[in-house]
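Revision sheet: structure tokens.
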Amino acid sequence: MVNQLKGLLVAILLVVSPIWPLGTNPLPGDPFLIINKKTNQLAYIDENQVVNVVPVATGQTKDLTPEGLFTITVKAKNPYYRKKDIPGGDPRNPLGTRWIGFDAEDTDGRIYGIHGTNNPDSIGKYISQGCIRLHNQEVEALFEDIPLGTKLLVTNSEKNFYELGLEYHALN
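Predicted:
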């Protein structure tokens, strides 16, 4: 009985360990996002499968959209655009209808995000100042499906989404 409890405790510690080499351990079955800057696509992984792949826009230059494993920390409907003082819901607002912020470069989800756009022709291009743009209807659906704390991988890889999902333990 004692050995069974010790085994269970070790298993729990491995799953929730803060020393997981890639940050918090994403568990298969948890939502997980992958953005591949090489293909300008976003994959939504849930329940151990790639659920959806959609085109995105990323940074004008390779270094503008940061790469790494991040966490979704902020979600906002009709976000306010501070740079040009444009309220949420205004058709001139370049952030579109939703903001899904992530913690790249210690910004706590306030600077880098996945968001909609008022320029749908920009999707698929290298055009942003660092954020990841989606069509409004796609970011609205994603906004509803993913909770705060969802892990996000931004990469520039030759690997496909299935290979990346396996590597980052979002798939098994």
